[in-house]
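Notebook entry, structure prediction.
Reason for the run: the old model in the group folder had no record of what sequence produced it. Starting over properly, with the input documented here first.
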Amino acid sequence: MDEVGACGFPVFEPCRISVDALRGAQSAVARCVLVAFDERTRRFWERALAA
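New structure, fully documented this time:
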């Protein structure tokens, strides 16, 4: 089971949702910076990006 964050919401789920949204967006944006405020969240971002 994934670790939980604010209000008991799984941490990985918002990472996955945002990565999917970014990949599916039709945009002229050349670069998007995803910010993790701690090591645990960074690992979840990396996991979402690797999927």
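Summary: Residues 15 and 45 are 6 Å apart (CA to CA).
The old model has been moved to the deprecated folder.
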